[in-house]
Amino acid sequence: MSTKKILNFINGEFTEGTSGKTFEDRNPVDNSLVGTVYEAGEADVDTAVKAAKAALKGPWGKMTLQQRVDMLYKVADRINERFDEFLEAECADTGKPYSLASHIDIPRGAANFKVFADVVKNVPEEAFRLDTPDGKGALNVGQRSPKGVIAVISPWNLPLLLMTWKVGPALACGNTVVVKPSEETPQTTALLGDVMRECGMPEGVFNVIHGFGPNSAGAFLTAHPGVDAITFTGETRTGEIITQAAAIGLRDVSMECGGKNAAIVFADCDMDKAIEGTMRSAFANCGQVCLGTERVYVERPIFDEFVSRLAEAAKGLKLGAPQDKATSMGPLISLEHREKVLSYYKLAVEEGATVVTGGGIPDMPGDMAEGAWIEPTIWTGLADDARVVKEEIFGPCCHIRPFDTEDEVIELANDNVYGLATAIWTENSSRAIRVSEQIEVGLAWVNSWFLRDLRTSFGGAKQSGMGREGGVHSLEFYTEMKNICIKL
């Protein structure tokens, strides 16, 4: 079987780059070779940033707002026209089921361009009338301008969706971008370069460089003085390193980092909905979702029933080939990541956990035995200070603990360095609001999970990130606000 040649996309052209280095792109379903990725060197990153800088003063910078909106609509439509190509690439890189990627990843990846085009087009202008001593007054008008060249560093768990979540608003605001996708999932970002070219996007507006972090494309990009702002989704430690690099030159950063999210299940919940919602939040995308649930707190009267029912649901997950319509869970992203997750599975037992279900590697047929498969896992019985309870694992697993009072569970949920999201399950609306207001997170869902209106804010508290994106909140990051004061 032939493999793909995955190139950098710089100044409107695909290129192998100048580093002379390549690395492998492997399918986590069976560890088969998908393609050879050409790593960008420091000179290539410099070329990409300079191309992006030049494009700000070229045809892109001279477009009207409506022309930019039309261009982004064209990009979204073209992604949908090439839906099957994006779907195949996304699933080959991640191993996720076609049913998941076709429902969420690809549609949302396309929609991000239209949503943010509409946000920018419809945002109200800011204007204030000021009284002056001479009685004639003054008018203050707010003007938003593009921030410049945006470095986009996107993750491997939702490659297209989370990349366009950043590229969409950046371009809608008139910026140019240099994207460094995860080395694990390079295909859809490169494919988007082809779409941009097909749609007539001016050269240099959208650039893609492949590589790694330290001493590679990621480090070269974040250190480049021509980059005006950096947006990143990934591990907290990596976010800290990028923030340190951005401090030179006082460049803006937007960070969406780790999470150790808690679900809170009260005894008055709709049990069926709570089970279904917690199942999705713990095991969707093989647990590789920043918003996913790894801690579950259940009110004691329903604890045993909840644990039993969630375990049965987990056992019913169908692991299999992405193309199989019956498949409900794919593999982890790589064998390396599986070793990390398995180390936590082992640690949980060492820390005294009761393994309710899972805890190991499943038997998979044929070539899939070589893939990064892992069992969905549920634990009980761990101490509140156990590492498995405190640290982000990023796999299909959760620990369930009983609680007795509202105050107790709020304290438990907040007892973590992360603060990204929570899901609260209760039929008492007053309690839902009261608890939501006290949980230290950026997003709180009530009787739902992953229900997203893209006009609302997205981001984390504490070590889960810096800044907010989504709707007009993205405009705050991707534009510079200028006040023009006109004496009348």
Task: Walk me through this protein's architecture.
This protein has 488 residues and is of the alpha/beta class. The protein has two domains: 278 residues, Aldehyde Dehydrogenase, Chain A, domain 1; 193 residues, 3-Layer(aba) Sandwich (Aldehyde Dehydrogenase, Chain A, domain 2), CATH 3.40.309.10. The protein is built from 16 helices and 23 strands. Strands 15-16-17-14-13-19-20 form a seven-stranded mixed beta sheet, with helices on both faces. It has a six-stranded mixed beta sheet with strand order 10-9-8-11-12-22, sandwiched between helices. It is globular, with a radius of gyration of 23 Å. The termini are far apart. The mean pLDDT is 98.
Q: How is this structure best summarized?
A:
The protein is α/β, with parallel strands linked by helices and 488 residues long. The chain has helices spanning 42-55, 59-62, 65-81, 83-94, 98-122, 159-172, 187-198, 217-223, 236-247, 271-283, 303-315, 335-350, 387-390, 406-414, 429-438, 472-478; strands at residues 4-6, 8-10, 13-15, 22-27, 32-38, 127-130, 138-146, 149-153, 176-180, 206-208, 229-233, 252-256, 261-265, 293-299, 354-357, 377-380, 397-403, 418-419, 421-425, 443-446, 461-462, 465-466, 479-487. Helix 5 (98-122) runs parallel beside helix 6 (159-172).
Subunit arrangement of the protein:
single chain
| Biggest sheet features | 7 strands, mixed
Globular, elongated, flat, extended or rod-shaped: what is the shape? globular
- Helix coverage percent: 25-40%
Radius of gyration: 23 Å
User: Structural class of the secondary structure composition?
Assistant: alpha/beta
Rounded mean pLDDT score:
98
Number of E-state strands = 23
Low-confidence segments, given as residue ranges, are: none
Task: Output the CATH class name of the largest domain.
Answer: Alpha Beta
Q: What is the count of distinct domains? A: 2
What percent of residues are in strands? 15-25%
CATH architecture of the largest domain: 3-Layer(aba) Sandwich
Helix segment count?
16
The CATH topology of the largest domain comes to: Aldehyde Dehydrogenase, Chain A, domain 1
Cα-to-Cα separation, first versus last residue: 72 Å
CATH superfamily name of the largest domain? Answer: Aldehyde Dehydrogenase, Chain A, domain 1
